[in-house]
Amino acid sequence: GRFAFDGDWTVEDEYARAGDGAAIELAFRAKGVYLVLDGDGATRTGRVLIDGRTPAAVEAGADLGPGGTLEVTTPRLYCLLEVLY
Q1: Less Cβ crowding at N or C end of the chain, within 10 Å?
Q2: Residue 84 DSSP one-character state
Q3: Nearest residue to 49 (alpha-carbon basis) of 73, 83, 19
Q4: pLDDT (tens digit, 9 = 90+) per residue, 52-73?
């Protein structure tokens, strides 16, 4: 797959830090989509979409809430999507 940063990002050798309104666009064909995230000491929220729509219940990963919402609380691997292709 491919990915692209959109919005305000600080990109370093080992990590990328999102600014306000930042997004990641990912082109993929996979059974699952995972991302290591860290709220940097705070609870951060985001939203995951597939082609502009909220993931269906069968597509949502273990860490997605209603409406494709994601709450990042601790640094770890987050399961965003479990898409069956």
Answers
A1: C
A2: -
A3: 83
A4: 999 999 999 999 999 999 999 9
Return d(Cα 53, Cα 44) in angstroms, integer. 21
CA-to-CA distance for 33 and 84, rounded, in angstroms? Answer: 11
| Contact yes or no for 79/48 (Cβ under 8 A) | no
Could you tell me how many helices (H) and strands (E) the chain has, helices first?
0, 8
For residues 19 and 7, what is the distance between their CA atoms, to the nearest angstrom? 7
Q: How, if at all, do strands 44-47 and 69-72 pair?
A: antiparallel
pLDDT at 85: 63
**Among candidate residues 74, 64, 76, the one with its CA nearest the CA of residue 40:** 74
Q: Could you tell me the two tokens for 64?
A: 């997605």
Decide: residue 73, CB within 10 A, 0-12 exposed, 13-18 middle, 19+ buried: middle
